[in-house]
């Protein structure tokens, strides 16, 4: 085989040998010695990359960028409210609203997400709070309480309704009822847990997806009024079925009703038990009745992304060790079979590392593209302390962004060209940029954020909002602004530049759901208000001793907003990557 070493199966030659284990942080991981190493400031002379990116980012420019990010959100939100509410989404070019496509039930791209429940308003709630806009937050919450209903004849995807709607309702509920009110006064007069009841109502309507399934893996879609449609599909993607535990778990623990967490956890375990015995990998599409893998592709992007994310985040939130154990095993398999290229990302011989798509049973390469969803992975690596690898993977995606001013949905690394050309304003690269900035405090990431902000302004801003890029090369647009643009893309951009935001101030511990909704990590969510059901030993280890569930302060994982923002005062403004590495990547995506 010729071409980059990413084509080679793992283990062929020293440069391609699988990484033995993730580089786990030891105590004091965020201290100066560690960052001195990761940031690579070891006697290199300045060059064009260093000149461009490593200069300190002036505070005024930072404030300007924060205001630009806020302005971006406000422009999208105000236009949605003016032209689209109470419909689900804004068509930003024609200044109209958009709801489910009733004329074409097979239009899943629309109908999976739009449930006729004012999706964009609901999804945007906690961004309003994070930006400190208490009057609009209070107004929006009241609108949701008074106008949104889930008693609709809409067939939606269980996953989308969970992460965008259920997650947002729970996040806003927690913000309203937080006794500390860190974002300003976000309380609602006479609030009587209405958002929590709405979340419960929605979750109950999603429950039929978990019934009559032989494996416990849920049906992908339900009708909110009538349950699982008779002609429904038995095939689901792994991420869709296996990333419900964060929202369902929070709901269960707030209500003291184990049902929701139980069904979500059963689904995760059923999927986990179907992993390959040889590689430990999962596929991307499975039949919920037979447990047969219909899609055998294993990768980090579409179909699997948030499955991995929620194994770790469930552990962070609920402290159940089995979630961390599954995550650790999955991470090891990813390192063994998906990661190609040289072992150390920032130095050594061979191609820079890349995570490819392989057959779950054989580990053989299945194609030569990566997708833009995979750009979330460096953010997840930050959470477990594999920061150096995160820095390198993020740089690869940033190089693609620099080339097109956006991320194509799929990029073919062999052809050095996009395979799928649209960019629907996705947040993943910004999310990783924000988390890497919190971990390193390196101004490189502020430069990256500025680049992203400026290209969004230049290529996607239209008359009434921000539009999906139809074609990242000719920059033509499509009349759609997905709800995650306000709930995630704008939020992460704002947080990147808003130095003093309560989300990343010490003393607070927030985690982001896969839709970017904040949830505080606290003791309360680790207390089970019901008899333990999820560990096979019924909450007891083999010897009958009670299982130790770690307290939040005992967590070894890095919470971006707790440990790593305590960067020493003598901050080291070096490039996080060696220039030679960046040049290599720029070459590999055809930039130079
Ligand atoms: C969002 O709905 C979530 O981030 C999800 O995890 C993946 N897809 C979109 C954004 O791209």
UniProtKB/TrEMBL annotation:
EC number: 3.2.1.-
Catalytic EC class: hydrolase
InterPro entries, per database record: 6hp_glycosidase-like_sf (IPR012341), EDEM1/2/3 (IPR044674), Glyco_hydro_47 (IPR001382), Seven-hairpin_glycosidases (IPR036026)
Disordered, as annotated region: 1-28
Gene3D superfamilies cross-referenced by the UniProt entry: 1.50.10.10
Residues involved in Ca(2+) binding: 514
Alphabetical GO biological process terms: carbohydrate metabolic process; endoplasmic reticulum mannose trimming; ERAD pathway; positive regulation of retrograde protein transport, ER to cytosol; protein targeting to ER; response to unfolded protein; ubiquitin-dependent protein catabolic process
Main location (coarse class): endoplasmic reticulum
Pfam families documented for this protein: Glyco_hydro_47 (PF01532)
Keyword hit for Transmembrane helix: yes
Function: Extracts misfolded glycoproteins, but not glycoproteins undergoing productive folding, from the calnexin cycle. It is directly involved in endoplasmic reticulum-associated degradation (ERAD) and targets misfolded glycoproteins for degradation in an N-glycan-independent manner, probably by forming a complex with SEL1L. It has low mannosidase activity, catalyzing mannose trimming from Man8GlcNAc2 to Man7GlcNAc2.
Similarity comment: family membership: Belongs to the glycosyl hydrolase 47 family.
Protein name in the entry: alpha-1,2-Mannosidase
Organism: Pan paniscus
Taxonomic path: Eukaryota, Metazoa, Chordata, Craniata, Vertebrata
Gene that encodes the chain: EDEM1
